[in-house]
Design goal:
Elements (H helix, E strand, L loop, with lengths): L2 H9 L21 H25 L14 E2 L6 E11 L2 E3 L7 E3 L5 E5 L1 E2 L7 E6 L7 H14 L6 E3 L2 E3 L1 E2 L4 E8 L7 E3 L13 E8 L17
Parallel strand pairs: 2-13
Antiparallel strand pairs: 1-5, 2-3, 2-7, 4-5, 6-7, 8-9, 9-10, 11-12, 11-13
Length: about 230
């Protein structure tokens, strides 16, 4: 009879008052697997989105060089956006600025970048000034961009200096006459200085004419900006 109490004591050794072993919680219990996976996916998507935005907004300097301080960016800017018109005349004839000047495309016709000064094909001779900050741009800078773009696309030189206006080379006995219309009600007035130094302003119309030295320049034709510009 003495052996029975010993057996009961031995059977309960190390199991606490209830005789059961304590249950230890598993590592990581209480954190659902779905929440962890979702968090990782959201984090990766956020990083990818930020990287894409940074990539698209960077200047495309490897493919298209900066010209006269103006880069060619992957996206058009809207911080500063206004319009000026440039009319090129030889005699009484207007020669349009080539479509897409300042807008670079790849071999498939996809736009790869925009210079801050460019021309859309549906808006003849209207220069879009679009930059990420408030800067001053000149007619000379536009022609520098146009020249780079034109040569890169194998259209030939586009120049503005004492002997060139766009694609025209002045011949003996020819001269350049420039008019500026600020749309202030005064109409076009003759600009006596270097046309390259003219500052581009909103709704300004600049007419650069090549005429015989002994003749007066033609009165520039009126120019109307489309509604919404």
């Amino acid at each position: 009879m003495a052996s029975k109490p010993r057996a009961k004591a031995s059977a309960g050794f190390g199991k606490g008052k209830s005789g059961r072993r304590p249950v230890r919680p598993k590592s990581g219990a209480g954190v659902p697997l779905l929440a962890v996976v979702t968090g990782v996916i959201v984090g990766l998507l956020t990083i990818g989105l930020i990287a894409t935005i940074v990539y698209l907004q960077r200047p495309q300097t490897n493919l298209t060089p900066t010209v006269a301080g103006i880069p060619c960016d992957h996206l058009e800017h809207s911080t500063i956006h206004y319009h000026a018109a440039i009319q090129i005349m030889h005699g009484d004839t207007i020669t349009n600025i080539r479509d897409n000047t300042g807008i670079q495309m790849d071999s498939a016709g996809n736009i790869t970048c925009y210079y801050w000064l460019h021309v859309h094909p549906t808006q003849k001779n209207i220069v879009h000034i679009e930059s990420p900050s408030s800067l001053t741009f000149t007619v000379g800078q536009f022609f520098d961009v146009a020249n780079q773009w034109s040569n890169a696309n194998h259209y030939g030189a586009i120049q503005l200096d004492s002997t060139h206006v766009a694609t025209f080379t002045l011949q003996p006995g020819e001269k350049i006459v420039t008019y500026v219309d600020l749309n202030d009600g005064k109409g076009p007035t003759v600009y006596e200085g270097d046309p390259r130094s003219i500052v581009l302003k909103n709704h300004e119309v600049i007419t650069i004419e090549v005429v015989p030295s002994g003749e007066s320049a033609s009165t520039p034709p009126s120019f109307t900006f489309p509604s919404g510009l």
